[in-house]
Amino acid sequence: MSMQTFFSNHSLLPQQLPSIEEARWQRLAPDYARMVLLSGLGFWLPAGVAGLVLSTLGVIPFNAMLTSAVWLALLVPTLLGYPAARVKRYAIREQDVLFHEGLLWKSTTVIPRNRIQHIQTENGPLERWFGLVTLKCYGAGGQQADLVIPGLEETLGQQLRQYLLNQAEDTDDPGNAGGDDDVQQ
To answer: pTM for the full model?
Structure first.
């Protein structure tokens, strides 16, 4: 007897598609927006002060219009970093992980959880000072993270990492085909 495998690929109507609006969006840590602002100002303000000092000493010529234009060009993106950081959101659902960002140009990234191969958390000195981490999810064969969620409180970031790792192990385990709701921490 030969076994026949039946393949199905039913069409879905638009109203049958899962809605991204139904996702339970979570905000990033409140300190993340402050860290972004501090990071930007911490870089540009000393550079601007150095430029003013050098022009006062006559090392470089001073042009008020050019100086104002440079300050405006540097400060506007830095100051927009704060509200841009406040609109970032993430959601963890049964089948995928979502990240939304953008003030003017909005972007939503979705990665299916069964495609996540590697997960890491990282934080630099400023993030450590604020108690934050960045969660990075990598898909198969990728050198760069497919999904990056910055600004998570450190404890939450580690919990999310472990949760997603446990779920990936449950998916990979052929003996656990039905999934296991009793994940031990």
So the answer is: 0.76
